[in-house]
Fold:
Amino acid sequence: MLNLIVCIKQVPMVSELNWDPRTGTLKRDLAEGMMNPACHHALEAALRLKDLHGGHITAITMGPPMAEEVLREALAIGADRCILLTDRRMAGADTFMTSFILARAIEKECPDFNIVLCGCHTSDSETAQVGPQLAEELKIPGAAYVEWLELKENVLRMKRLSDNFLETLEMDLPGLVTVTTSQYQPRYVPLAGIQDAYDKYDITTLDADDLKLKITGIKDSPTRILKVYSPDSKKKNIEMKGPAKIIVEELLEKFGRKIGGEIQKDLKAYGQDQ
Amino acid sequence: MNFNPCTKHKTVRKTVRKFVETELGPIAHEIDQKARFPWEVVEKMRPLNFFGLQVPREYGGAEMDSISYAIVIEEISRVCAAMGLCITVHNSVGTNPIAQFGTKEQKEKFLPKLASGECIGAFCLTEANAGTDAGGVETTAIEDGDHYVINGTKIFVTNGGICGSALIFTITDSENQRNSNSVLIVEKNTPGFSVGEIEDLCGMRANPVSSLFFEDCRVPKTNLLGRKGDGLKIGLSTLDSGRIGIAAQALGIAQAAFDDALKYSKERQQFKKPLSTFQTIQNYLADMATEIDAARLLLYRACVFKDTGKSFGAEAAMAKLYCSTIASRVTGLAVQIHGGYGYSKEYDVERYFRDAKVTEIYEGTSEVQRMVIARSLLTKPA
Structure:
């Protein structure tokens, strides 16, 4: 049976993030949480593999107890089992520690996995490091920024966009992929699934002791965040006055290049049509 | 007492909001203007259990608790009240009575089709001379061998133009009219059953509300819901649940109007200041928010009473009365805050304003809710 693992992360829903200026870490408890979009696409990729080949999906997350919410969502949409890694000692872990802890949990709870799927990056920290580091930790091949997956026998065929090339890769399993948000549009969650997710499933909750880890998230993380800040906005408003036809022409003349690309082409084509 | 929503209810709200904002949001204005029923969205709602919200699992439903149910209706109505109406009427009065009062055979025959949305349900009580007075129904169902023969006309039937089956409130004994109400399940293709013109209404325009005609329409006796003469009992019980749905719908409309008014008040400048800086507008916003919150608490209380097996008729009536009253008030204030633009079809508050009014009228008028509440007060032992 195809054994799939999807690593998901709960991220703050608001685009405006709050952080602790002293430690440089995000204040996650203030924001409403959601499943990181790329993780959601990775889950969808796993669901499509399961639709085609059958199998079992384990969703795993590391975070505060409230991260259970995204695991329930994963169950609602079709995951079969969920693992929550939560421990105050894991708090403040950087990507290196996170992938280390995830790897130990996967080895302990689902050693017979075939494919690990991660989102290519998270919307709150954007490092894109956990997936590749997790492949290293698990000592399996990994491919990042994958757009399409196809499974044949024990070989995973993938497409990924690299610069301006579309690469087709093949990987022996077990292996790890990080999935982009360009394909695998997540399906809607059925309402019966939500009821089941809360009424019928238990979530496996593990702490550092369960994984026999003697760690402290912040102390054992080699990365130090020096500063988190909002870049100053240099935008200013320009008011254009006059008849529409004239100011549109003026707008295009002054800013057409900035608008750029397709929009400018469309506008030109539109101009020729008239 | 815990006022925090549990994570399940948060997930239900988030999930439904995402769906309706994506699928209904972009077309809500257009389907209101064209009075068009959005079949393309129905198609997407079917596999997501929107048509079997409280139907038991064995018949393909989601078997949700009542707060989840209210949240679903509230969130659909926040974006498109006409679709909220279709879903709540289909579920609460078009489908649930079969789950509650139907025989095993009736459940097996009708519930899977209703829960999957293959067949949209309707409930027909109102007639030219009956509505608020349920005892005044004149549509007859006369026994003839193994059949009932139905004759009469039902008006203002929500989902009338699209229903695949309808529950018909009839009298089965014309001699003793007041005590002989019975409910029959009629399928659309039954000879003698026809659909009238779609009504041209003030609000809820995307819902095909119509008359239904019955001319010597023969339905098998196996389609009788409950026993002969159970009609009033089924009708009253159904309406108690139905009121939770309409209260949720009214609440959704009020929330939408408030959200728009709050946003607009911060953007619109007069006297070189945003409207929201004026105390009069702040008072409006404070009143709107307070009323919406109070309405939501009343509604959720009725839901909890229902799910814990308590009698909830008066609580549902209070929730329906209050939610619909504040929906009219809040949408009126939202139009007021928008000024001239609020009176224009360009802005959604104009639609909310039209949609809100009927929540004070259907599923029991506000006057009937007060009757129900007063009756429960006066019959309580001192």
